[in-house]
Specification:
heterodimer; A: 764 residues; twelve-stranded mixed sheet; 25 strands; B: 202 residues; mainly alpha; ATP-binding (chain A); AAA_ATPase_domain (chain A); hydrolase (chain A); ATP binding (chain A)
C-alpha cells in the first residue's frame, strides 16, 4: 500500500478554480487527510497545493488536480498522461496567516494604469480568500469577465511556515508590486547568465547606465541630471557587441526590445515610420515597469547618411528615428543602444549628445583580452594540461571573439576526429589547437587587401648575410619578443625599415624569413593592389591596409618595390600624380598625429598603476601588449635614390639596411644551399666556384646551379645522375653576373656610408 | 440506520445553514432583479449624455437659452450619480448576503473540523439512497459560497468599470447585467437547495 499508483486525469469542469484535488478513499486514508485539508502534490516540473476532496464515484487509483496554487513555471501540459504514486502526495499542516505580501500580475498596462489601488486590494483579497498558499507559489485568478488580475505571486507570509498557510478573511494582504503579464513573463524567463570576457569595464559602465536611473530616480531628479539614454557600440564584426548588450540586459533584468532593419521597412510608403513609432511606443510602455533597452542592431542599415543617399524613404526613417529619440520623456528609463561596424556611414545628426550620448568603441581584442576570452570559451571544454592559453593568445593576433570561438570549436572537432572511440573522455590538446589554427583565419582578414599566402622561409635557408640577419632580428624580432629589455633601456620600437640593395640579393626572401620567425600579422602590399582607375581609390586602399594592420597588431606591412608605388615630391615637378598622393598617405600613416577614435582598442590601463598586485607573468603580458601596439613597415627597393626625403627621416623609415651582394663566404653558403637538392659529383669544388662567381647575386648563383644541372642532363641524356665540375665551369661561361661595378659604386655613393664601401672591398 | 452523535450534530448544523441560505438566496435574487431597472435607466441616461455631446447648441434654436448645455449636463450627471448611489446600495446588499453565507459555511466547517477525528473518513463519505454523504454536502456548501463570491465580484467589477468618459460602454450595461444573471451556474443554488430538502424531514 506504500506506493499505490495514481493515474492523473484532467480535472472536472466544476472543479476549476476551486483548488480541489480529487482522491480515492484509499489514498485519502493512506495520506491521512480530512475533507478539505491541504496537500502538496509534487510532480516532475513543480509542485501544487490543493485541498483534499473525495471523488464523487469513490473510485481509487485516480488523481485529479486543480492547479490554482502552484510553483511558478508549472503548467498543466506537463501533467498529461502522468502516473504518480502516493508518495508524491503529502499532507500539510494548516496555519492561518496573519499577513501575506504579494505581487500582483495584471492583464496589461492599460488595466494597470486604470485600476485604482483600493479596488485592486479588494479584488486580490477576494481572490485569495480561503486559498491555501505557500511561499513563492503563484495563485491563478479565476477567469471572471472584467477581472484585471491574472495571477498573484506570494512573496512573503507571516508566520513563516513550510506548511500550507490559509488566507482567512482576517489576513492582512499587502500588495508590494504590480506588474503586467508581459513583464512578468519576461522576468520569469530563463535567466541563465551570458558571460562575456575581456569587456568587464565596458559591461559595468553600461550596466550602471541602465540601472542607476531606475534605482535612484529621485537623486537624478534632484541633481537635475538628464539621464544618458543612448549608447552607440562601434567595433568590427564579431567582437561581441550584440552579445555584450544581451549579457548586460540579462544581468540587470532589463527587457530588450530589438529593432532590425528588415523588420522595420515595409512595402507601403510610411509603413517604416509607423513601425518605428509603434516600437518606440511599446518601449515607452514597458519602461514604466522596469529597465528597458531598445536595441538597434546594424544601425547603419537603418540610418544611413541623409545627404549622400538620394533615397527619400530612407531619409524619412532617419528623420523619424531622430525625432523619436528626442521625444523620449526623461521620466522613463528606456535606454537606446545601437551597434554598428560602420560608424562613418551613420547620419551625423544621430551622433550628438541627447541622442547617442556615449559611443563605446570595442576594438579587436588585445593579447590580454584574447586570453580571457579563450579562458572563458575553454572553461567548459575538456582541455588537457598541455594547452597554453597565453601562447594561444599570442598566436591569434587579429582574431576577434567569434574567430576564437570558431577556433575552439574546430579544435574540439579535431579532438573528436582523432579519438576513434566514441568515448566521453575526449581531451583537447595543443596539437588540436594548432591544427585548428591552420584552418581558422581571422574573419577580418577575409576581405583584406594585403593578405598573402607564402611558403615559410627559415633564416637558415638564406645563405650568408649574417650581419644583415642580425640587424633584422634586432629591429623586428627583439622588440616583439623581449619587450622588457627595450623598456628598460628606454628604447622605442622602430617604425619602419628600408631594405635596399641591388636586385636579386634576397631582400624579399629576408622579409619572408622575418614574417615566418615572429608570430605576427603579415600584410604585403604591391603596386597591383594599390592602383586603380578611380580617383582616390589607391589612397583609400593603402589606408585600409594600415587600418587592418593596426587592428591586428603586432603586424608587419611589407611594401615591395616601394619606389614603384611612391613617387618623390622633389623629383617630380607636378606633384599631383597618384604616387604623390599615396606617398602622403603613407607618411601620415607612419607618423601621423594620432589614430582614429574608432580604432581604439583595449582598455587604457596605466602601465605602472596596476602592476603591483600582478605577478611576473601578468606583467610580462602587459609589457608585450603595450609594446606591440605598433605596426612595422618593411619596405624593399633597389632604387633608394628616388624615394622622397621625408620618408627616409628617422621616425618613419628610420632604419636603412643595405643588403649587399654576397661576398665570397656568402656565395659559398649560397652555393651550398642551392646544390643541396642537386646531386653533385665529388670533384665539384664549391670553394672554387665561390671564387669564380664575383659580382654574382644570389639569384645569379641559383641560376648558375640550374644551368649546370640542365647541361648535365643535355650531355649525359635523361639518365644523368650527377652534375660534374665541368658542367659548372661551362655554365659559368654562359651565365653572366647581373651586378656591375658601377652599379655597386652607385650604392656606395648613395649614402656614402662606410658600410657599403667595406662590402665592396670585401667582394674583391 | 444507526448514526453517531457527531453526524447528527453536523446534520443539524447543515440543516440550519441550508435554511439560512434559502432565505439569503431570496434576498440575493431580489437585489439582482432590483438592479436591472436601475441599470437600464443608467444606460438611457448615457444615451442622452452622448446625444448632448454630439449636438452643437449654437446651431439649434436652443441657442437663445443661456447656459442650457451646462445645466443639462449637470442635471444628467446628478441623475446618474443618484442611480449609481442606488446601485451601490444594492451591491452592498449583495455583499451582506455573501458575508452571511460565508459565515454559515465557516461555522459548519469549523464544526466538521472539531468532529472530524471522531467521525472518521469512512463515515463522511458514506451515502445511502435518501441521504447524500457528508462530504457531498460540505462540497455543495463550498460551491455555494464560491458562487456568491464570484457573482458578487463580477457585478462589483462591472459597476466599477462605469466611466462617464466611456458612454457607449455605459449603454450596454443592461446587456452585461443580463449576462451575469443568466450565468450557467445561476441555478446552482436552487438545485442544491432542492437536493438537501430531505434535511427538513429529518
Amino acid at each position: 500500500m506504500a506506493a499505490a499508483l495514481l493515474k492523473l486525469l484532467p480535472p472536472e469542469v466544476g472543479d476549476q478554480g476551486t483548488q480541489r484535488c480529487r482522491l480515492g478513499p484509499a489514498t485519502f486514508s493512506s495520506v491521512g487527510a480530512r475533507l478539505g485539508s491541504p496537500l502538496r502534490i509534487t510532480v516532475p516540473g513543480g509542485c501544487c497545493l490543493c485541498s483534499a476532496w473525495p471523488r464523487n464515484d469513490l473510485a481509487d487509483g485516480y488523481l485529479q488536480l486543480d492547479l490554482k496554487c502552484k510553483t511558478p513555471g508549472f503548467s498543466a501540459s506537463k501533467l498529461e498522461g502522468l502516473t504518480l504514486s502516493t508518495s508524491h502526495v503529502k499532507l500539510l499542516a494548516c496555519q492561518r496567516l496573519r499577513k501575506v505580501t504579494v505581487k500582483v500580475v495584471l492583464k496589461n498596462l492599460t488595466v494597470k494604469k486604470s485600476t485604482p489601488q483600493a479596488t485592486l486590494q479588494e479584488i486580490v483579497k477576494e481572490l485569495l480568500r480561503n486559498v491555501y498558499v505557500s511561499l513563492h507559489y503563484v495563485v491563478t485568478a479565476v477567469p471572471i469577465p472584467g477581472n484585471p488580475v491574472v495571477c498573484v505571486e506570494i512573496l512573503a507570509i507571516d508566520p513563516l511556515t513550510e506548511e500550507a498557510g490559509l488566507i482567512a478573511p482576517k489576513t492582512n494582504i499587502s500588495i508590494k508590486e504590480v506588474v503586467s503579464l508581459e513583464w512578468y513573463r519576461h522576468l520569469s524567463k530563463d535567466t541563465a547568465k551570458i558571460s562575456v570576457a575581456g569587456m568587464d569595464d565596458l559591461g559595468s559602465s553600461l550596466k550602471e547606465m541602465i540601472v542607476l536611473p531606475f534605482h535612484f530616480p529621485k537623486t537624478f531628479k534632484k541633481l537635475g541630471l538628464s539621464i544618458p539614454r543612448g549608447v552607440l557600440l562601434v567595433g568590427p564584426p564579431g567582437v561581441g557587441k550584440t552579445l555584450l548588450v544581451k549579457a548586460v540586459a540579462r544581468e540587470v533584468g532589463a527587457y530588450v526590445l530589438c529593432i532590425s532593419g528588415p523588420a522595420i521597412y515595409g512595402s507601403r510608403p510610411g509603413e517604416g515610420e509607423e513601425n518605428l513609432r509603434r516600437i518606440f511606443e511599446q518601449g515607452r510602455e514597458l519602461s514604466c515597469e522596469g529597465p528597458t533597452i531598445l536595441f538597434i542592431d546594424e544601425i547603419d542599415s537603418l540610418c544611413p547618411k541623409r545627404g549622400s543617399s538620394n533615397n527619400i524613404p530612407e531619409n524619412r526613417i532617419v528623420a523619424q528615428l531622430l525625432t523619436l529619440m528626442d521625444g523620449i520623456g526623461s521620466e522613463n528609463e528606456m535606454v537606446i543602444m545601437a551597434a554598428t561596424n560602420r560608424p562613418d556611414a551613420l547620419d551625423p545628426a544621430l551622433r550628438r549628445h541627447g541622442r547617442f550620448d556615449r559611443e563605446v568603441v570595442i576594438g579587436t581584442p588585445t593579447l590580454k583580452q584574447r586570453r580571457s576570452i579563450l579562458q572563458l570559451i575553454t572553461s567548459n571544454m575538456p582541455i588537457s594540461t598541455d594547452v597554453d592559453l597565453i601562447n594561444l593568445a599570442e598566436m591569434t593576433t587579429g582574431y576577434v571573439g567569434a574567430d576564437l570561438t570558431a577556433l575552439c570549436r574546430e579544435a574540439a572537432m579535431q579532438a573528436v576526429l582523432h579519438s576513434s572511440l566514441d568515448s566521453v573522455h575526449v581531451l583537447i590538446n595543443m596539437a588540436d589547437f594548432h591544427e585548428a589554427f591552420k584552418k581558422i583565419q581571422p574573419s577580418s582578414f577575409r576581405s583584406s587587401v594585403g593578405l598573402t599566402d607564402f611558403k615559410p622561409v627559415t633564416w637558415e635557408q638564406i645563405g650568408g648575410l649574417d650581419d644583415v640577419k642580425l640587424k633584422l632580428k634586432q629591429s623586428i624580432e627583439w622588440p616583439l619578443k623581449f619587450p622588457q629589455a627595450f623598456v628598460r633601456m628606454g628604447l622605442s620600437q622602430p617604425k619602419g625599415i628600408l631594405l635596399y640593395g641591388p636586385a636579386g640579393c634576397a631582400k624579399t626572401t629576408l622579409v619572408k624569413a622575418v614574417a615566418t620567425s615572429c608570430h605576427c600579422s603579415f600584410l604585403c602590399v604591391s603596386g597591383a593592389d594599390l592602383f586603380s582607375p578611380y580617383v582616390g581609390d589607391s589612397e583609400k586602399i593603402l589606408s585600409q591596409v594600415f587600418r587592418q594592420a593596426r587592428a591586428h597588431t603586432p603586424a608587419i606591412v611589407f611594401l615591395d618595390e616601394i619606389d614603384s608605388i611612391l613617387g618623390s615630391r622633389s623629383a617630380c615637378k607636378t606633384g599631383h600624380g597618384v604616387p604623390e598622393k599615396v606617398l602622403s598617405v603613407l607618411l601620415n600613416e607612419l607618423d601621423g598625429v594620432g589614430l582614429k577614435v574608432t580604432e581604439r582598442r583595449g582598455n587604457e590601463t596605466q602601465l605602472e598603476g596596476e602592476c603591483q598586485e600582478q605577478n611576473e607573468k601578468e606583467r610580462q603580458l602587459e609589457f608585450q601588449e603595450v609594446l606591440n601596439k605598433g605596426v612595422m613597415i618593411v619596405a624593399a627597393t633597389n632604387r633608394p635614390d628616388v624615394l622622397d626625403n621625408a620618408l627616409l627621416r628617422p621616425g618613419r623609415l628610420d632604419k636603412l639596411i643595405y643588403i649587399p651582394p654576397p661576398d665570397q663566404k656568402g656565395r659559398l653558403s649560397i652555393l651550398k644551399i642551392c646544390t643541396e637538392k642537386i646531386p653533385i659529383d665529388s670533384d665539384v669544388s664549391l670553394e672554387y666556384l665561390a671564387v669564380q662567381t664575383k659580382l654574382f647575386s644570389g639569384a645569379d648563383i641559383e641560376n648558375l646551379c640550374k644551368e649546370a644541372a640542365l647541361l648535365a642532363l643535355q650531355e649525359n641524356g635523361l639518365e644523368a645522375t650527377n652534375v660534374k665540375h665541368e658542367h659548372f665551369v661551362k655554365s659559368l661561361k654562359t651565365v653572366k653576373p647581373s651586378l656591375t661595378l658601377t652599379n655597386l659604386d652607385y650604392y656606395e655613393k648613395l649614402f656614402n656610408s662606410q658600410e657599403v664601401s667595406s662590402y665592396i672591398r670585401r667582394i674583391w | 440506520m444507526s448514526e453517531s452523535p457527531a453526524i447528527l450534530v453536523l446534520h443539524q448544523a447543515l440543516q440550519k445553514s441550508f435554511q439560512a441560505i434559502h432565505q439569503q438566496q431570496g434576498v440575493w435574487q431580489q437585489a439582482l432583479t432590483d438592479c436591472k431597472p436601475l441599470l437600464s435607466s443608467l444606460s438611457n441616461l448615457a444615451e442622452q449624455m452622448q446625444a448632448c455631446q454630439k449636438v452643437t447648441f449654437a446651431h439649434t434654436p436652443l441657442r437663445d437659452f443661456p447656459d442650457l448645455e451646462e445645466q443639462l449636463k449637470y442635471k444628467q450627471r446628478c441623475a446618474a450619480e443618484g442611480l449609481l448611489e442606488e446601485l451601490g446600495g444594492k451591491v452592498a446588499d449583495l455583499q451582506k448576503v455573501r458575508d452571511a453565507v460565508s459565515g454559515y459555511v465557516g461555522t459548519v466547517f469549523q464544526l466538521y473540523e472539531q468532529h472530524a477525528d471522531v467521525l472518521g473518513f469512512e463515515a463522511s463519505v458514506q451515502r445511502t439512497a435518501p441521504h447524500p454523504s457528508l462530504a457531498d454536502m460540505l462540497e455543495w456548501l463550498h460551491d455555494i459560497e464560491r458562487y456568491y463570491r464570484h457573482e458578487y465580484l463580477e457585478s462589483k467589477l462591472l459597476l466599477l468599470q462605469i466611466r462617464y468618459e466611456n458612454l457607449p460602454d455605459m449603454q450596454t450595461l443592461p446587456r452585461s447585467w443580463e449576462r451575469i444573471l443568466e450565468h450557467d451556474s445561476r441555478s446552482m443554488v436552487p438545485d442544491t437547495l432542492l437536493k438537501v430538502s430531505f434535511l427538513g424531514t429529518l
